[in-house]
Amino acid sequence: MEHAPPLILGRSDAGKQVEVFLNTACPYCVNFFLAAHEVLMPRVEAGEVGYAIKHYDKPKVRLLHGAIANLHIDYNQPERAYELLHSLFRTQREWRLLDSGEIEKMMQQEYGCSEQRSTMNLSLDITKEALERSITAVPTVFINDEKFAFESLGPAGDIAERLDRAID
Q1: For residues 76 and 153, what is the distance between their CA atoms, to the nearest angstrom?
Q2: pLDDT tens sequence across 53-106
Q3: In the structure, what pLDDT confidence band is assigned to residue 155 with cuts at 50, 70 and 90?
Q4: Burial category of 12 from C-beta neighbours within 10 Å (exposed 0-12, middle 13-18, buried 19 and up)
Q5: Which string of DSSP letters, residue by residue, matches the chain?
Q6: Is residue 66 within 8 Å of residue 57, measured between CB atoms?
Q7: pLDDT of residue 1
Q8: What does the alpha-carbon distance between residue 125 and residue 6 come to, in Å, rounded to a whole number?
Q9: For residue 32, which of 50, 103, 139, 153 is within the disulfide window of CB 3.0 to 4.6 Å?
C-alpha cells in the first residue's frame, strides 16, 4: 500500500515542536498558516523548530474542497508540498467556492498535480489520529504537545505575535 508521511519540516530534535491540524479550505486556517509561515519558517530553517503540518480532511461540507485539493499533493516531496499549501492558502478566496470538478482541474492544470494514492492513505491516518486525540476543529495547534490557544479569527499579525511569544 502506497503511503506518504505527514509534512514535517525542520529537525525532529529541535527544542520546539509545532504541530498543526488544518484544512486548506478553512478560512480560519489561512490566518494561522500565514502567521506560521512568517514566524516559524525562519526558525525551521535555523534548526530551532520542528514543524508538522497535518491536513485534516475533516468530514464537513465546507472543507470538502480542501480535501479534494489535498489529495493531489505529494507529501513525499515536502518542499513542493509546502509550496502548494502556501499557494492554496494565499489564493483560497479565489478557489474555495469552485465546484469539486473545477478544484480537481485547477490542481491538475495550474499546479501540475495528479491525485496521489499515498496521500489518500495519509489522509485516512490523519483523520484517525484527529479522532483519537479528540480534535474537533481546524486549526488545532500544539507546541511541544501542549495545545496552543489563540483567536483563529484574528488577523495573521496578531497570531504571529502570539505564536512568536509562545515559541520563545
Answers
A1: 31
A2: 999 999 999 999 999 999 999 999 999 999 999 999 999 999 988 999 999 999
A3: confident
A4: exposed
A5: ---PPPEEES-TTSSEEEEEEE-TT-HHHHHHHHHHHHHHHHHHHTTSEEEEEEE---S-GGGHHHHHHHTT--TTSHHHHHHHHHHHHHTHHHHTTS-HHHHHHHHHHTT-----HHHHHHHHHHHHHHHHTT--SSSEEEETTEE----TTS-HHHHHHHHHHHH-
A6: yes
A7: 59
A8: 9
A9: 139
Question: What is the amino acid identity at position 21?
Answer: F
3-state secondary structure 41-62: HHHHHCCCEEEEEEECCCCCHH
Provide the Cα torsion 72, 78, 81, 82; round to 10°.
160
Amino acid at 64: L
| Percent of the chain topping pLDDT 90 | 90
Q: What is the pTM of this model?
A: 0.95
Condensed to tens digits (0 to 9), the pLDDT of residues 1-24 reads 587 889 999 999 999 999 999 999
Instruction: For the beta carbon of residue 47, count every other beta carbon within 10 angstroms.
Output: 12
Q: What is the pLDDT of residue 15?
A: 94
Dist. CA 93–CA 66, nearest whole Å: 12
Q: Residue 147 is placed in which grid cell?
A: 495545545
